[in-house]
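User: Can you predict the 3D structure of Competence protein ComEC? Sequence below.
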Amino acid sequence: MQNKTLNNEIEVNQMGVLLEPDDYTISGDLLKFTGKSLSKKQRILVYYRFKTEEEKKQFAKIQTAAFVQISGKMNGIRGPTNENEFDFRQYMAGKNVFNQLQAKQIKAFTKFQRNTIFSFFHSLRKKIIDYLDMMPQPLGWFIQVLLIGYQSENFQDSMDQINKLGLLYLFTLSGMHVYYLISIVRYVTRKFWVTKETADLILLFLLPIYGIIGGGSLGLLRSLSMSWLHIFSSRCGSWKMSGIETWSFVLLLNLLITPMAVFSLGAQLSYLLTLILMFSQEKDQFLIGAKMGGFTLPLVLWHVFTWNIWTIPLSILIGPFFDWIIFPVVVIGFIFVPFRPICNAILVLVQHFFAWGASVPGTIIFGKPPLIFIFIWLGSMLWLEVSKKKKMKIFYILISYLLAFCWIHFPFESEVTYFDIGQGDCSLIKTKFNRDVFLIDTGGRLSFNTQKWQVRNSRTNGETVVVNYLHSKGISRIDRLYLTHQDTDHVGNFPSISQNIKIKRLYLPAGMEKLASFQNRLRNSKIKPQVVTPVTDQTSEFPIQILHPFESGAGKNEDSMVLLYRMSGQHFLFTGDLDQVNELKVIQKYPTLTADVMKTGHHGSKTSSAPTFIEHLNPKLAIISAGRNNRYGHPNAETLATLKKNKVPFVITAQSGMIKLKADRRKKLKIETFDQTDIKEKKEKNEGSTDH
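Assistant: Sure. Here are the predicted structure tokens for Competence protein ComEC:
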């Protein structure tokens, strides 16, 4: 079972897992760590929810290697279920971690003597992290990031701002930091009259240690390995390895040990930029910066979909500032206690500068280019290196970027997309050429009686799923956001989405705008109160028709908005969590109402989808949005029986992931699930079954 992904879920009882003290993170009531299973002989990802605040405090005190006994359910790490969602499974595979364990109980964890050099330095790293947490901030956070490769949860906002400016490479341990380390060691040894040969031997000993102290990121290990091989071959080998030889050897080693790691943006940029610098002959910092930007931009667009126009000029300007101000201040603040207040004050100003820079407009939502363009752009940059008529080649490259931009931003098809948002609802409507972009509900995470110590600091799936998808399609605004009713699993994500996507208009059932819960969310969003419009079925809207509520209410399930959208002659119905009684009232008021595609109310609960309602609508397809293994048992067997009785095929997001419906030139619907399975094939294969 070593390094094999589990296909089925299995129960484990008192599994022994070895935990290094710097490998776990705690956010609210959630414990997450990667440890080595002693019985399965593999590294696994473990999640555990603390039951009490005291249990959380006790676990946070671990500073040495620990043996942990865990009971729970173990399965393969799940991949993405929405298009262009971050592939966490692939990311963990890059660390040779393929399975996860949802712990129900940690019966006991026992500190024990594990006298290995690795455990010693892992413990040392944990103690340094805890020590830096007690220092003045943000000095301690900067030291954690720049010297030991650890990012505090409290430093996340600053790192997000740095990332938005495209300067994250400066704050990721890599070749530049290894260069500083080697320079410092050689400077100190010279002052103590140590020979260069002895200094190199010291470095051969120190560099592997720093690989552990620095957190062992791929970029750091690549740089340390290249430097170690270069020094070793110079002093101890029969021949001195060149830069390209060490680069090639380390890349080959990487492919043999962790082959999936090369698919990450960090690995690709690390190896590519190193190669560019080795072959670059330019002395001008601007030309070097422009060349590195030209090579990295295709990869950044493929992975992130956005680009900041200030990245290249800031890289040129900030580079010397980082070398002469930020990094020395961090080192001085770490070593010399009396200078810490002034060092901290300087870094506060640096932090404010990054916050200001991130607020300056300049981020282009480009979208995810077709893969062929990535190869064209990288090939063109290589072509540019050997070409003499560079101006014309640059013009052709710019034209190709413009073509890719237009291809992404002006699609020829309209589409209706149902996100796999977990136990919640979120649907997207976008018309041809992205002329109109409508979002119906946003999803949101339900929390039950959450105390302060249980609150987690994490991104919402509104950001990781919805915003990510919109950005990948080159979309930077939502023309109309419809919130069907007040429940968190329908509206909880709209504040976080509004922080990343401009929302022009917001519609909600009349009366809901008065609720304190909605007003709190509105204050936490970037949506201005004047763009909020309460509606009933008397509100005239086009192309989406509002069929319910009939009057002002309190935003409850029975007040849910019912929306009818027409695309290429097809009718799409959205009913929120409307109950059966009010479903019947809708068809009584609108007796000619039919729907080709309906999203079943309340996630397939038996409180919705009345048999008379389904029979009257006579849909050709039903979409059910429900979470995997949800506590409510959605979709309910009674609802599925009603659909089957009326011969309505259905697709469930919990089983099929994101569901997309597009209209082709003949105005026929093309229906795809995330795994690209056509619904017609499923219907033929599973007619009458629940596994669609």
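The longest strand covers residues 99-111. The radius of gyration is 28 Å.
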